[in-house]
Write a structure and sequence with these properties.
Distance between the termini: 42 Å
CATH architecture: 3-Layer(aba) Sandwich
CATH class: Alpha Beta
Radius of gyration: 20 Å
CATH topology: UDP-N-acetylmuramoyl-L-alanine:D-glutamate ligase
Number of strands: 9
Order of helices and strands: HEEHHEHEHEHHHHHEEEEHHH
Strand order of the largest sheet: 3-4-5-6-7-9-8
Helix content: 25-40%
Structural class: alpha/beta
Length: 333
């Protein structure tokens, strides 16, 4: 955004809202005036009579033109976040910079795909770009919808990420040949036929936990388990263990897959805007408190339902879920 002596209305609104909410704005960058590429990011959505998105227009050029490795490192070092959320409005190189900086300073990282087109930025075509695999993956969690998951998978496949020896070493440890029956048992034939379990498994070496949002069809969580993960030996988790390591891979213990049906069928939708952001916000807030993803999915779904019924991009009634949220986040403590 332009400097404070000539800040535009959009920038002023953003800062005022953040400050009024009690959020720290010390790391907000205020860019030089007179630079057209320094326009504050804006997004406009048009929904149809059925409340679903019809048309969206976004000006996110500021993210692409003003990414700075030094800034990313300095912000993370100063804020010391437990979890860092990186969305796909950034360029591919900037996404890599944020993820690397987060890992360097001990933050867990979540990737928000934003849209089908932008989700592929996590797996760019550059031959010089590489992504480490589990247990050194720079992304810990992603929450794509079904279409974004497919786009990410196709980008990873077409750009060679699923051809490396490092990737194969992790995949081979799963022993997942002929897994359709297990996919159906842990999700459904419909979800399996849509390719969601298989695509998630293929991406797990790079993103050890993938939570795919399927709208009215609920959520599918697929997560990598390390050798020492307690879920491998937990009777409660046993029904959701998709696979156990079949070789001597030093880090891979298995795969956890769990389907969560929708918490509610929502007929009185006001707007779909911000629903995915609400889900991820609740999820990462709970994870930052030490919670587990599988314990937080349902409360994150309930938060998303509140936003579905709200004219705001994030429902102002999320506080009503505070007790349930805290219980889910602290369940294992």
């Amino acid at each position: 955004m332009p400097p404070s002596n000539g800040i535009g209305s959009a920038g002023s609104t953003v800062l005022a809202t953040l400050e009024a909410s009690g959020l720290d704005t010390s790391c907000v960058r205020i860019l030089g005036g007179g630079d057209d590429s320094a326009r504050t990011a804006q997004y406009v959505a048009v929904n149809g009579t059925d409340k679903n998105l019809v048309l969206a227009m976004a000006d996110m050029d500021i993210f692409v033109r003003h990414a700075s490795p030094d800034y990313a490192a300095s912000v993370i070092e100063a804020a010391k976040p437990a979890w860092l959320v990186v969305d796909a409005n950034w360029s591919s190189s900037a996404i890599g910079t944020w993820l690397s900086a987060g890992r360097k300073h001990g933050a867990k990282t979540a990737f928000e795909p934003v849209s089908v087109a932008k989700s592929t930025r996590l797996f760019p075509s550059s031959k010089h770009r590489s992504m480490p695999v589990f247990p050194s993956a720079t992304v810990d969690l992603a929450t794509p919808n079904q279409l974004e998951l497919e786009a990410m998978y196709q980008a990873a496949k077409e750009n060679g990420y699923l051809d490396t020896s490092e990737w194969f070493g992790v995949i081979d440890a799963f022993g997942m040949r002929g897994a359709r029956d297990r996919f159906v048992k842990l999700s459904s034939a419909e979800i399996t036929d849509a390719g969601i379990p298989a695509q998630s498994i293929q991406l797990l070496p790079y993103i050890p936990t993938i939570i795919t949002k399927m709208g009215a069809n609920g959520v599918l969580l697929v997560s990598m388990l390390g050798k020492q993960d307690s879920r491998l030996y937990d009777r409660e988790a046993e029904p959701f263990i998709l696979a156990r390591s079949t070789n001597d891979h030093p880090e891979v213990g298995g795969v956890y897959m769990r389907y969560f049906p929708p918490v509610e069928r929502v007929e009185d939708v006001v707007s779909v805007n911000g629903v995915g952001d609400t889900f991820l916000g609740v999820m990462t807030a709970g994870l930052a408190m030490g919670g587990r993803a599988e314990d937080l999915v349902d409360v994150a779904q309930k938060a998303a339902v509140l936003t579905l019924r709200s004219p705001s991009s994030v429902s102002e009634e999320l506080g009503d879920l505070a007790g349930e949220f805290l219980g889910a986040a602290r369940r294992r403590q």
